[in-house]
Protein backbone atom coordinates (compact mmCIF):
# COMPACT_ATOMS: atom_id res chain seq x y z
CA UNK A 1 0.00 0.00 0.00
CA UNK A 2 2.66 2.53 -0.88
CA UNK A 3 1.71 3.84 -4.29
CA UNK A 4 -0.90 5.89 -6.07
CA UNK A 5 -3.21 2.92 -6.38
CA UNK A 6 -3.57 2.74 -2.60
CA UNK A 7 -4.75 6.35 -2.68
CA UNK A 8 -7.34 5.42 -5.34
CA UNK A 9 -8.28 2.20 -3.54
CA UNK A 10 -9.13 4.05 -0.33
CA UNK A 11 -10.98 6.66 -2.38
CA UNK A 12 -13.11 4.16 -4.29
CA UNK A 13 -13.67 1.74 -1.40
CA UNK A 14 -15.18 4.57 0.61
CA UNK A 15 -17.35 5.51 -2.35
CA UNK A 16 -18.73 2.01 -2.64
CA UNK A 17 -19.53 1.84 1.07
CA UNK A 18 -21.45 5.10 0.93
CA UNK A 19 -23.66 4.01 -1.96
CA UNK A 20 -25.54 7.29 -2.47
CA UNK A 21 -29.08 7.06 -3.75
CA UNK A 22 -29.39 8.71 -7.12
CA UNK A 23 -30.87 8.14 -10.51
CA UNK A 24 -27.58 9.03 -12.12
CA UNK A 25 -25.24 6.37 -13.42
CA UNK A 26 -21.84 5.94 -11.83
CA UNK A 27 -19.14 7.49 -14.00
CA UNK A 28 -16.73 4.57 -13.41
CA UNK A 29 -13.79 6.96 -13.46
CA UNK A 30 -10.78 4.92 -14.59
CA UNK A 31 -8.32 7.43 -13.10
CA UNK A 32 -8.01 10.47 -10.82
CA UNK A 33 -5.66 13.37 -11.46
CA UNK A 34 -5.29 15.57 -8.40
CA UNK A 35 -3.86 19.08 -8.07
CA UNK A 36 -3.33 20.71 -4.70
CA UNK A 37 -1.38 21.36 -1.53
CA UNK A 38 -0.81 19.43 1.70
CA UNK A 39 -4.55 18.89 2.08
CA UNK A 40 -4.13 16.20 -0.60
CA UNK A 41 -0.36 15.56 -0.88
CA UNK A 42 0.34 11.82 -0.75
CA UNK A 43 4.11 12.14 -0.78
CA UNK A 44 4.99 14.71 -3.45
CA UNK A 45 6.99 17.11 -1.34
CA UNK A 46 8.88 14.43 0.56
CA UNK A 47 9.93 12.88 -2.76
CA UNK A 48 12.03 16.01 -3.31
CA UNK A 49 12.77 17.35 0.17
CA UNK A 50 13.77 15.71 3.45
CA UNK A 51 11.17 13.19 4.59
CA UNK A 52 8.92 13.81 7.57
CA UNK A 53 9.68 12.21 10.91
CA UNK A 54 7.49 10.12 13.18
CA UNK A 55 4.68 10.49 14.32
CA UNK A 56 3.65 11.52 10.77
CA UNK A 57 2.00 8.46 9.23
CA UNK A 58 1.31 6.72 12.56
CA UNK A 59 -2.45 6.22 12.08
CA UNK A 60 -2.48 4.83 8.54
CA UNK A 61 0.83 3.86 6.94
CA UNK A 62 2.48 3.14 10.31
CA UNK A 63 5.43 5.23 9.09
CA UNK A 64 6.04 8.54 7.32
CA UNK A 65 5.20 7.50 3.75
CA UNK A 66 4.45 8.72 0.29
CA UNK A 67 2.91 8.02 -3.13
CA UNK A 68 2.80 10.74 -5.72
CA UNK A 69 3.66 11.89 -9.24
CA UNK A 70 7.06 13.04 -8.02
CA UNK A 71 7.79 9.69 -6.41
CA UNK A 72 10.07 8.16 -9.03
CA UNK A 73 10.44 4.86 -7.18
CA UNK A 74 8.02 2.15 -8.20
CA UNK A 75 4.99 4.31 -8.91
CA UNK A 76 2.09 2.92 -10.96
CA UNK A 77 0.18 5.67 -12.80
CA UNK A 78 -2.52 3.42 -14.26
CA UNK A 79 -5.15 4.89 -11.93
CA UNK A 80 -3.98 8.47 -12.29
CA UNK A 81 -1.47 10.70 -10.59
CA UNK A 82 -1.34 13.07 -7.66
CA UNK A 83 0.48 16.32 -8.47
CA UNK A 84 -0.29 17.94 -5.10
CA UNK A 85 2.59 18.91 -2.85
CA UNK A 86 2.53 20.32 0.63
CA UNK A 87 3.02 24.11 0.70
CA UNK A 88 1.84 24.56 -2.88
CA UNK A 89 0.18 27.80 -3.90
CA UNK A 90 -1.91 28.85 -6.89
CA UNK A 91 0.33 31.83 -7.67
CA UNK A 92 4.10 31.85 -8.09
CA UNK A 93 5.40 31.93 -4.50
CA UNK A 94 7.71 34.76 -3.45
CA UNK A 95 10.05 32.38 -1.59
CA UNK A 96 10.51 28.65 -2.05
CA UNK A 97 11.69 25.88 0.27
CA UNK A 98 14.27 25.71 1.84
CA UNK A 99 14.13 29.51 2.32
CA UNK A 100 12.58 30.74 5.57
CA UNK A 101 8.80 30.87 5.16
CA UNK A 102 9.35 29.20 1.79
CA UNK A 103 6.60 27.52 -0.20
CA UNK A 104 6.66 24.57 -2.58
CA UNK A 105 8.34 25.14 -5.94
CA UNK A 106 5.57 22.94 -7.40
CA UNK A 107 2.88 25.61 -7.53
CA UNK A 108 -0.27 25.12 -9.60
CA UNK A 109 1.23 26.05 -12.99
CA UNK A 110 4.10 23.57 -12.45
CA UNK A 111 1.59 20.87 -11.49
CA UNK A 112 -0.26 21.61 -14.74
CA UNK A 113 3.00 21.28 -16.70
CA UNK A 114 3.74 17.97 -14.99
CA UNK A 115 0.29 16.79 -16.05
CA UNK A 116 0.96 17.79 -19.67
CA UNK A 117 4.22 15.84 -19.55
CA UNK A 118 2.57 12.77 -18.06
CA UNK A 119 -0.22 12.86 -20.62
CA UNK A 120 2.16 12.98 -23.58
CA UNK A 121 5.00 10.81 -22.34
CA UNK A 122 2.86 8.08 -20.77
CA UNK A 123 1.61 7.21 -24.26
CA UNK A 124 5.18 6.95 -25.59
CA UNK A 125 5.95 4.53 -22.73
CA UNK A 126 2.81 2.52 -23.37
CA UNK A 127 3.97 1.93 -26.96
CA UNK A 128 7.03 0.12 -25.57
CA UNK A 129 4.64 -2.54 -24.22
CA UNK A 130 5.44 -4.97 -21.40
CA UNK A 131 5.65 -3.53 -17.91
CA UNK A 132 5.64 0.05 -19.28
CA UNK A 133 2.14 -0.42 -20.69
CA UNK A 134 1.05 -1.70 -17.25
CA UNK A 135 2.33 1.36 -15.39
CA UNK A 136 0.72 4.12 -17.48
CA UNK A 137 -2.88 5.25 -18.00
CA UNK A 138 -4.52 4.40 -21.30
CA UNK A 139 -5.00 7.36 -23.64
CA UNK A 140 -8.79 7.42 -23.23
CA UNK A 141 -8.45 7.63 -19.42
CA UNK A 142 -7.44 11.29 -19.69
CA UNK A 143 -10.85 12.27 -21.01
CA UNK A 144 -12.78 9.86 -18.74
CA UNK A 145 -10.84 10.65 -15.55
CA UNK A 146 -11.94 12.73 -12.58
CA UNK A 147 -9.85 15.88 -12.08
CA UNK A 148 -9.78 17.03 -8.45
CA UNK A 149 -8.55 20.32 -6.97
CA UNK A 150 -7.84 21.52 -3.44
CA UNK A 151 -5.58 24.55 -3.54
CA UNK A 152 -5.56 28.17 -2.37
CA UNK A 153 -5.15 27.90 1.41
CA UNK A 154 -1.44 28.64 1.14
CA UNK A 155 -1.96 31.72 -1.03
CA UNK A 156 -3.95 33.17 1.88
CA UNK A 157 -1.48 31.83 4.47
CA UNK A 158 1.49 33.27 2.53
CA UNK A 159 -0.14 36.68 2.66
CA UNK A 160 -1.01 36.57 6.36
CA UNK A 161 2.42 35.27 7.42
CA UNK A 162 4.19 37.56 4.94
CA UNK A 163 3.11 40.60 6.92
CA UNK A 164 0.21 41.64 4.70
CA UNK A 165 -2.82 43.02 6.52
CA UNK A 166 -6.06 41.06 6.45
CA UNK A 167 -7.46 43.69 4.06
CA UNK A 168 -4.45 43.37 1.74
CA UNK A 169 -4.75 39.59 1.60
CA UNK A 170 -8.48 39.96 0.98
CA UNK A 171 -7.76 42.37 -1.87
CA UNK A 172 -5.42 39.83 -3.48
CA UNK A 173 -8.17 37.18 -3.69
CA UNK A 174 -9.51 38.07 -7.17
CA UNK A 175 -6.02 37.75 -8.65
CA UNK A 176 -5.43 34.40 -6.92
CA UNK A 177 -8.75 33.01 -8.16
CA UNK A 178 -8.14 34.38 -11.65
CA UNK A 179 -4.83 32.51 -11.79
CA UNK A 180 -6.69 29.36 -10.75
CA UNK A 181 -9.16 29.96 -13.58
CA UNK A 182 -6.37 30.29 -16.17
CA UNK A 183 -4.79 26.98 -15.14
CA UNK A 184 -8.09 25.10 -14.97
CA UNK A 185 -8.89 26.32 -18.50
CA UNK A 186 -5.54 24.92 -19.63
CA UNK A 187 -6.39 21.57 -18.03
CA UNK A 188 -9.75 21.61 -19.85
CA UNK A 189 -7.95 22.39 -23.09
CA UNK A 190 -5.73 19.34 -22.47
CA UNK A 191 -8.86 17.19 -22.57
CA UNK A 192 -10.21 17.03 -19.01
CA UNK A 193 -14.02 16.97 -18.74
CA UNK A 194 -14.96 16.11 -15.13
CA UNK A 195 -13.86 18.60 -12.48
CA UNK A 196 -14.31 18.27 -8.71
CA UNK A 197 -13.24 21.57 -7.12
CA UNK A 198 -12.88 21.96 -3.34
CA UNK A 199 -13.25 25.40 -1.82
CA UNK A 200 -10.84 26.45 0.91
CA UNK A 201 -11.31 25.67 4.59
CA UNK A 202 -11.69 27.90 7.66
CA UNK A 203 -8.04 28.98 7.91
CA UNK A 204 -8.89 31.12 10.97
CA UNK A 205 -9.59 27.95 12.99
CA UNK A 206 -6.09 26.53 12.44
CA UNK A 207 -3.40 26.74 15.09
CA UNK A 208 -0.83 28.41 12.87
CA UNK A 209 -3.11 31.41 12.39
CA UNK A 210 -4.37 31.47 15.99
CA UNK A 211 -0.80 31.26 17.34
CA UNK A 212 0.64 33.89 15.00
CA UNK A 213 -2.21 36.36 15.50
CA UNK A 214 -3.25 35.88 19.14
CA UNK A 215 -5.03 39.23 19.33
CA UNK A 216 -7.33 38.49 16.38
CA UNK A 217 -11.02 38.83 17.20
CA UNK A 218 -12.60 35.40 17.73
CA UNK A 219 -16.01 34.14 16.67
CA UNK A 220 -18.33 32.18 18.98
CA UNK A 221 -16.36 28.92 18.58
CA UNK A 222 -12.92 30.52 19.01
CA UNK A 223 -11.79 30.87 15.37
CA UNK A 224 -10.14 34.05 14.09
CA UNK A 225 -13.07 35.85 12.52
CA UNK A 226 -11.58 38.11 9.86
CA UNK A 227 -9.18 35.37 8.66
CA UNK A 228 -12.17 33.12 8.04
CA UNK A 229 -13.91 35.99 6.27
CA UNK A 230 -11.05 36.15 3.78
CA UNK A 231 -11.46 32.40 3.18
CA UNK A 232 -15.19 33.00 2.67
CA UNK A 233 -14.48 35.74 0.14
CA UNK A 234 -12.06 33.40 -1.67
CA UNK A 235 -14.85 30.81 -1.79
CA UNK A 236 -17.35 33.36 -3.10
CA UNK A 237 -14.98 34.28 -5.94
CA UNK A 238 -14.16 30.60 -6.57
CA UNK A 239 -17.82 29.72 -6.90
CA UNK A 240 -18.35 32.59 -9.36
CA UNK A 241 -15.40 31.18 -11.31
CA UNK A 242 -16.94 27.70 -11.40
CA UNK A 243 -20.20 29.20 -12.70
CA UNK A 244 -18.17 31.02 -15.37
CA UNK A 245 -16.40 27.77 -16.35
CA UNK A 246 -19.77 26.05 -16.77
CA UNK A 247 -20.91 28.79 -19.12
CA UNK A 248 -17.80 28.76 -21.32
CA UNK A 249 -17.35 24.96 -21.34
CA UNK A 250 -20.91 23.58 -21.42
CA UNK A 251 -19.77 20.06 -22.39
CA UNK A 252 -17.77 19.60 -19.17
CA UNK A 253 -18.97 18.89 -15.62
CA UNK A 254 -17.74 21.31 -12.94
CA UNK A 255 -18.68 20.40 -9.35
CA UNK A 256 -18.03 22.98 -6.62
CA UNK A 257 -17.55 21.35 -3.22
CA UNK A 258 -18.12 23.29 0.00
CA UNK A 259 -15.40 21.75 2.14
CA UNK A 260 -15.41 24.92 4.27
CA UNK A 261 -18.79 24.12 5.81
CA UNK A 262 -17.85 20.54 6.64
CA UNK A 263 -14.54 21.56 8.20
CA UNK A 264 -16.17 24.39 10.15
CA UNK A 265 -18.74 21.96 11.60
CA UNK A 266 -15.84 20.11 13.25
CA UNK A 267 -15.09 23.31 15.21
CA UNK A 268 -18.69 24.39 15.85
CA UNK A 269 -20.19 20.95 16.72
CA UNK A 270 -17.28 18.63 17.50
CA UNK A 271 -19.19 16.36 19.91
CA UNK A 272 -21.99 15.74 17.43
CA UNK A 273 -19.42 14.29 15.04
CA UNK A 274 -17.44 12.34 17.65
CA UNK A 275 -14.58 14.80 18.18
CA UNK A 276 -13.22 16.85 21.09
CA UNK A 277 -10.97 19.87 21.75
CA UNK A 278 -11.02 20.97 18.08
CA UNK A 279 -8.79 24.01 18.52
CA UNK A 280 -5.98 22.05 20.22
CA UNK A 281 -3.52 20.39 17.83
CA UNK A 282 -1.97 16.97 18.44
CA UNK A 283 1.54 18.22 17.65
CA UNK A 284 3.33 21.51 18.23
CA UNK A 285 3.53 23.93 21.12
CA UNK A 286 1.10 22.94 23.84
CA UNK A 287 -0.27 20.14 21.71
CA UNK A 288 -0.51 16.50 22.67
CA UNK A 289 -3.11 13.82 22.14
CA UNK A 290 -3.27 10.20 23.21
CA UNK A 291 -6.08 9.39 20.82
CA UNK A 292 -5.84 11.18 17.47
CA UNK A 293 -9.02 9.40 16.30
CA UNK A 294 -11.14 11.88 18.29
CA UNK A 295 -9.11 14.96 17.39
CA UNK A 296 -9.60 17.44 14.56
CA UNK A 297 -6.28 19.18 14.01
CA UNK A 298 -3.05 17.24 13.72
CA UNK A 299 -0.23 19.78 13.63
CA UNK A 300 -1.76 23.26 13.57
CA UNK A 301 -2.08 23.36 9.76
CA UNK A 302 -3.43 19.91 8.85
CA UNK A 303 -6.37 17.81 9.91
CA UNK A 304 -6.03 14.35 11.48
CA UNK A 305 -6.73 11.20 9.47
CA UNK A 306 -10.00 10.82 11.43
CA UNK A 307 -11.11 14.36 10.55
CA UNK A 308 -10.17 13.89 6.90
CA UNK A 309 -12.14 10.65 6.78
CA UNK A 310 -15.18 12.44 8.23
CA UNK A 311 -14.77 15.26 5.69
CA UNK A 312 -14.52 12.76 2.83
CA UNK A 313 -17.63 10.89 3.98
CA UNK A 314 -19.59 14.14 4.07
CA UNK A 315 -18.50 15.59 0.74
CA UNK A 316 -18.51 12.39 -1.32
CA UNK A 317 -22.31 12.09 -0.98
CA UNK A 318 -22.82 15.32 -2.89
CA UNK A 319 -24.61 16.95 0.07
CA UNK A 320 -22.10 19.82 0.04
CA UNK A 321 -21.74 20.11 -3.73
CA UNK A 322 -23.13 22.44 -6.35
CA UNK A 323 -24.78 20.76 -8.20
CA UNK A 324 -25.53 18.18 -5.43
CA UNK A 325 -23.95 15.27 -7.28
CA UNK A 326 -22.04 12.50 -5.46
CA UNK A 327 -18.35 12.09 -6.18
CA UNK A 328 -18.66 8.95 -8.24
CA UNK A 329 -21.26 10.63 -10.48
CA UNK A 330 -19.30 13.83 -10.98
CA UNK A 331 -19.10 13.39 -14.76
CA UNK A 332 -22.74 14.55 -14.91
CA UNK A 333 -23.57 18.23 -15.31
CA UNK A 334 -26.95 18.18 -13.57
CA UNK A 335 -28.93 16.00 -11.19
CA UNK A 336 -31.25 13.70 -13.17
C1 LIG B 1 -0.61 -1.09 -12.10
O1 LIG B 1 -1.93 -0.98 -11.58
C2 LIG B 1 -2.91 -1.59 -12.42
C3 LIG B 1 -4.28 -1.26 -11.83
O2 LIG B 1 -4.30 -1.56 -10.49
C4 LIG B 1 -2.65 -3.08 -12.55
O3 LIG B 1 -3.60 -3.66 -13.42
C5 LIG B 1 -1.24 -3.27 -13.12
O4 LIG B 1 -0.93 -4.64 -13.16
C6 LIG B 1 -0.21 -2.55 -12.26
N1 LIG B 1 1.09 -2.65 -12.92
C7 LIG B 1 2.11 -3.32 -12.39
C8 LIG B 1 3.34 -3.40 -13.20
O5 LIG B 1 2.06 -3.84 -11.28
C1 LIG C 1 7.43 40.00 9.02
O1 LIG C 1 7.83 41.03 9.89
C2 LIG C 1 8.68 40.58 10.95
C3 LIG C 1 8.90 41.75 11.90
O2 LIG C 1 9.16 42.94 11.20
C4 LIG C 1 9.99 40.04 10.35
O3 LIG C 1 10.81 39.55 11.38
C5 LIG C 1 9.63 38.89 9.40
O4 LIG C 1 10.81 38.42 8.76
C6 LIG C 1 8.62 39.34 8.34
N1 LIG C 1 8.20 38.16 7.59
C7 LIG C 1 8.18 38.13 6.26
C8 LIG C 1 7.75 36.81 5.66
O5 LIG C 1 8.47 39.07 5.55
C1 LIG D 1 -13.11 41.28 1.24
O1 LIG D 1 -13.47 41.97 0.05
C2 LIG D 1 -14.84 41.86 -0.29
C3 LIG D 1 -15.04 42.52 -1.66
O2 LIG D 1 -14.55 43.79 -1.67
C4 LIG D 1 -15.67 42.49 0.80
O3 LIG D 1 -17.05 42.35 0.50
C5 LIG D 1 -15.36 41.82 2.14
O4 LIG D 1 -16.06 42.48 3.18
C6 LIG D 1 -13.87 41.86 2.42
N1 LIG D 1 -13.60 41.07 3.62
C7 LIG D 1 -12.63 41.40 4.50
C8 LIG D 1 -12.46 40.49 5.68
O5 LIG D 1 -11.91 42.38 4.37
From TrEMBL:
Coiled-coil regions listed in the entry: none
UniProt-recorded Gene Ontology molecular function terms: hydrolase activity, acting on ester bonds
Pfam short name (any one): Lipase_GDSL
Range of residues in the leader sequence: 1-23
Stored InterPro entries: GDSL, SGNH_hydro_sf
The keyword Metal-binding belongs to this UniProt entry's keyword annotation: no
Keyword vocabulary terms for this entry: Glycoprotein, Signal
Family classification: Belongs to the 'GDSL' lipolytic enzyme family.
Protein name: Esterase-like
